[in-house]
User: Fold NUDIX hydrolase from Brevundimonas balnearis.
Amino acid sequence: MLESQPIPAVGVVCLRGDDVLLIRRGRPPRQGEWSLPGGRIEPGEGVREAALRELREETGVEAELIGLIDVVDGVFPDAGRHYVLIDYAARWINGEPVAGDDAVEAAFHPVSTVDDLVAWSETVRVIRLAAKMTASS
Assistant:
C-alpha cells in the first residue's frame, strides 16, 4: 500500500568529465543499489536549492546545476512510496565524494558503466540524457 500522497523529491546527475557521481543507497527504496544523490524537498525549500543541498549532504560534493533533465514517477510499492523525482543535470565544481546522510557509498563512475552498475532503468535513462545535455553545451 502506498502513502496517501506522492512525495516531491530531487535527483542530481553530477558529471565530472565522462564520470557520473553515484551513491549506494542505505535505505529503502532500492536499498543497496547504486543511484543518484537526492531526496525529499523540505517545506519552504526551492527545488534547485533542495537538489544542491541533497548533493552536499549525501556526497560532500559541490556542483552547478545546468538544467532540468526530466520529472520521473518513482513508484515503489514494497516501500509504500510514490516519489515525484525532479532530476537535474549538474557539473562538478569541487570536492571528492564521501558518503553521508543515507548513502553508504559515494563515488564517480564512468558513464559508460552505468548499464552494469545501476539497476533501475529510469536512473540509467536520466544519466544518459544528462550526458547528452552536457556534451552539447
Q: What stands out?
A: The chain has a mean pLDDT of 95. The helical segments are 47-59, 114-117, 121-136. The chain has one domain: 7-136. The longest strand covers residues 62-76.
